[in-house]
Specification:
It is built from 17 helices and 16 strands. With about 425 residues, the chain is α/β, with parallel strands linked by helices. The strands form four sheets. Strands 8-5-3-2-1-11 form a six-stranded parallel β-sheet, sandwiched between helices. Strands 12-13-14-16-15 form a five-stranded mixed barrel. A three-stranded mixed β-sheet has the order 4-6-7.
Amino acid sequence: MIGRRWAVSLCCGLMAALVASPTAATTTVDSPPVIVARLDGTLSPVSANSLISAVTEAEERDAAALLVEIDTPGGLVTSMRQVVQRFLNAQVPVITYVTPNGARASSAGALITMSGNIAAMAPTSTIGAATPVTLSGGRVGDKIVNDAASYAEAIAAARGRDTGFARDSVVAGASITSEQALDRGVIDVIAPNRLTLLAQLDGRTVELGDGTSVQLSFESAPVVERDPGWTGAVLERLVDPNLTFLLLALGTLSLLVEFASPGIGAGGITGVILLLLAGFSLSLLPTTLVGVALLLLAAGLFIAELFVPGTGVLAAGGSVALVIAGLFLFDRSSGISVSQPVLLGVAAVVLIGSTALAVAVRNAQAQPYRLDDEQLINRVVKVVVAHGDQGQAMIDGERWHVRTDEPPLERGMQVRVLERSGLTLLVEPDDDDWRQR
């Protein structure tokens, strides 16, 4: 009897617990999350792609909202337009929040902030100064400024914000504090932290890009932060026009070292890696065909200087082509350019390096042979590079060109030196098996 009473009591207790807490279980598991993304630092194609991916993730997860925390001096115009377009057409509420205290949403960051369904700022933060400039601080043409001003007005009008400030921030570089932005209707709310912001916005209604209205509900919504990880940080750093130009120049110089003194291939491997990294950056940045063509011309002139060493005329021409390539490599209307100190400094380094390599090659060719015919004839050596009847062999740490009138050479093949003609050795297979073939 006692056992039965305990069993009945236990069953009744479990049923009471299930009946008493269905709502809590449902809200904990099924509540749509608030996904948090950050724009911290200069806006680049990498960070823009991260924000666009955040919108897609929020839509796929049917999130309660996407909260974008912003602290940026601005960035690329092309990247800004991509982010703004995605925010305006998002199928989830997008909340832009300039935070923490003292943060800023300048230039492209100001337009991104105004493109959110809800725009918020932390106390003592600022917004504005959206006049387009190059990354080195140079001025752009009136045509670009007027286009950006009209675009800013369109964004403000779409979100019901102050269009006058939107235009002034572009044309006159106007910048205001969070309190002034709230008074002028540039933003919707001021909040000292994330939790306070979500509490203030709970219950508000926003209109999405397709015209549907959504009521914000954050009472039980879990907050999920997106972490780009170390790979995102590395990619973000690579997308820099100055670093890209430096990688291009150093990669070319490394290949020149490999061509000047072929050996274990360290220079060639380093050069290929640097050029691949530069190629990744160029694939994300708005490059011009003229700039790329000038880069190829510069590389060709530097290589020619090694094979036709003279007074350094070809190297000087390559340096001039490199400087001009840096000036035309990126589309300036996007706000991207290589700074002049980097441009001139890199060109000087490559000029000095290529000239020094050319002089070294010329001096090496002028030196007498360290091995005479008696030391070479009948010597058995190993082929390290083979292309048909031509190849290369290593002799006492030096790389010699070899050729044969016998069957085609193969890598690893043992050959005997028959005679020498300049830096080319006539050889024949030394292995009896090869002769039988």
